[in-house]
Design goal:
It is a single chain. About 5% of the residues lie in helices and about 45% in strands. With about 240 residues, the chain is mainly beta. The chain has three domains: about 35 residues, no CATH class; about 120 residues, Elongation Factor Tu (Ef-tu), domain 3 (Beta Barrel); about 60 residues, no CATH class.
Length: about 240
């Protein structure tokens, strides 16, 4: 075999390119490894430092054991779950393939903050939430009961698929000056608790995201953290406060 330095460089590197190494689980036998395989290893086993936390969605069936590194539900056979339907879920105190306890992060800074849940490898599948609460589960102390409020998103949780959980806007940051209210039940009166400690401007859209002209609806500021919008007819939609 010629000296390694005598071989030409592969440029650019592609996923099917290979190099030689040893298999530590098989008496250090010489093996080749593809760039694709190494990339999968680095991502799956959290070998790359990242601010996003990584978990696998586990849809439990009768007799299954809840695995570390997963998010899921207390009910069995939840199936494919729309991200828009999430109000609570169970979350491991460990990331997938990682034995470091990250549960302190669930209470500070996440509680009260805006959090993004997105599918690994497909960021068009996502949900944006307010992270309302995080409490250790009494029956399964390696898991936490997480309470959230959905704002917007697309797609679903699919069994054995990985998802990132990442902090989008910290509750105490200067960016936390807006609030989106989802009016899912048709009403002519919307009472909105926004907790912005201010008297924000208000914009309104209907359920088809059609914006109404400024001044549509009468806004009454009940306090620095609550307001009421009155309309001439009942409808569903969103109010954007800033």
């Amino acid at each position: 075999m010629a000296k390694i330095e005598s071989y030409p460089l592969a440029s650019p590197v592609v996923g099917q390119d290979k190099w030689l190494g040893t298999d530590s689980a098989n008496a250090n036998a010489t093996k080749n490894f593809s760039a694709d395989a190494v990339a999968v290893f680095l991502n799956t086993y959290n070998k790359i430092e990242d601010q996003a936390l990584r978990y696998k969605y586990q849809d439990l069936e009768a007799g299954d054991v809840r695995l570390n590194g997963t998010l899921g539900f207390s009910t069995l056979n939840a199936g494919i779950v729309p991200l828009s339907s999430l109000t609570s879920f169970l979350l491991s105190k460990f990331q997938i393939n990682n034995n470091v306890d990250v549960s302190s992060y669930y209470t500070n800074p996440l509680v009260g903050s805006t959090v993004l849940i997105s599918q690994v490898g497909n960021p068009s599948v996502f949900g944006l939430y307010t992270w309302n609460s995080a409490v250790v589960n009494g029956a399964e102390p390696n898991f936490w009961d997480i309470g959230v409020t959905y704002s917007t998103g697309n797609g679903s949780l699919i069994n054995n698929t990985n998802y990132f959980i990442s902090l989008l806007t910290y509750k105490g940051s200067s960016a936390a000056t807006t609030y989106i209210h989802n009016q899912n039940v048709a009403s002519a009166t919307w009472v909105i608790v926004h907790n912005l400690n201010s008297y924000p401007a208000v914009a309104v859209t209907d359920s088809a995201n059609t914006p109404f002209a400024t001044g549509f609806g009468q806004v009454v500021y009940n306090s620095a953290n609550q307001l009421t919008i009155s309309f001439s007819a009942a409808f569903t939609g969103k109010a954007f406060l800033n």
